[in-house]
Each structure stands twice: as structure tokens, then as C-alpha cells.
Amino acid sequence: MTQTPRQAHRLATWRALREATVRLVAERGLAAVTVDDVVAAAGTSRRTFFNYFPTKAAALFDPDPELTGLLQRLTEEAPRTDDVWADACAICRAVVREGPGDLLVVYRRVAGSGELRDYPVEVHRHVEAALESWASGRLAGDALAARLVAATAGAALTSAFRTWDPATPPEEFARLADRALAAVEVHPTGT
């Protein structure tokens, strides 16, 4: 999808604020970085910062604005077999492969901050919501089964993320995600 100049500018501003926040927090720690520090490093204003992010933690961990488009594309391109769980796992593996890779880098750079430990899991909630919408189409009329598929996949990704050691390469997270997804068997239609 082609972006308008305005959309491209907004995305560039979002990413500049994100990068400045990540760099400064990695250098100084979250408590030592102010929004004023971030906007000075990004060459923008406090007002602009708060138009994009409600907090410094959000600037670190809110998912990239292009995540929604990626999730839509991956769910549209997902395999369509008789095994809804296997198809959901294929979507999850594609998400891990294709993005948001910067989240792993961000987490690695700020991993020492105990107050931020669980914030990255928010991205998995976006993935889970996209999976639930996809599963609702596949399992029409069975909201429980759709939620079960999405929540189980989300739990597998979250477990892998919390287990992943940020001192190891991102490929280790992908391996853990594969392992977590393979360890679960879901039969959403009761078969």
C-alpha cells in the first residue's frame, strides 16, 4: 500500500521519537530520561511527542504503526487447511519472522529495567486481536473457539517472549516461539 506524503511524515516522526527514546533509555535508564530529552534528540516538540505517545514507556513499546497492515496481510495470506490451529500457528510464525523485529531490539536495549519487563507483551495483544478476528471468520458462529485459538496462540508467544534471554540472538526467540506453538494442540471445533 502506497503512503501519502502525510502518512510517510507521520511514520517518520513516530520512528524518530521511538529511536530517540530507545537510544536515551539504553544510555541512561528510563528514570533519567525526560520527554524533553527525547524531543530534543528527535528534533521535535513535547506537543508532538504527546500526539504520538502517552508515556515514555509507550514510546519504547507501542507497536510500529505498520503492524496493523502486516497483521492484516498475514491473516489474508494464511493457509486455509482443515486444521485451524495449524493455520493460526503459521500466522504466528510469519509474525515472528516478519515483524515487529524492532521490539526484540528495543527489549534487548532496555532489558535491565525491571519496571519495563512486561510492557513488550502488549504487542502480543495486538497479534492476539488480529488472530481472533481471523479465527472468527474461520469458525463462524463459535466465538468461544475463535477466542480459544487466539488466546492460546497469544499465550504461546508471550511465554516464548518471557523465556527469551535478550543476550541471545533474536533467532532464539523464533526458536522458542516455534517450540511453544508446537507444544500446544488445540481442537477448536471439538474434534
Explained architecture:
This protein is mainly α. It folds into two domains: 5-59, Homeodomain-like (Arc Repressor Mutant, subunit A, Orthogonal Bundle), CATH 1.10.10.60; 67-182, no CATH class. The chain is 69% helix and 0% strand. The chain contains ten helices and no strands. The chain has helices at 5-28, 35-42, 46-52, 56-61, 67-76, 84-98, 101-110, 121-138, 143-163, 170-182. Helix 6 runs antiparallel to helix 10 (170-182), helix 8 (121-138) packs antiparallel against helix 9 (143-163) and helix 9 (143-163) runs antiparallel to helix 10. The longest helix has 24 residues, at 5-28. It is globular.
Write the layout of secondary structure elements.
Layout: H1 5-28, H2 35-42, H3 46-52, H4 56-61, H5 67-76, H6 84-98, H7 101-110, H8 121-138, H9 143-163, H10 170-182
Helix pairs in contact: 1-2, 5-6, 5-8, 6-8, 6-9, 6-10, 8-9, 9-10
* Count of distinct strands: 0
The helicity comes to 55-70%
Mean pLDDT: 86
Straight-line N-to-C gap: 39 Å
Over all CA atoms, what is the radius of gyration? Answer: 18 Å
| Proportion of strand residues | under 5%
Overall, the morphology is globular
Provide the structure class: mainly alpha
How many individual domains? 2
Model regions low in confidence, pLDDT < 50 over at least 5 residues: none
Report the order of strands and helices. HHHHHHHHHH
* Biggest beta-sheet profile: none
Determine the number of helices (DSSP H or I, runs of at least 4 residues).
Answer: 10
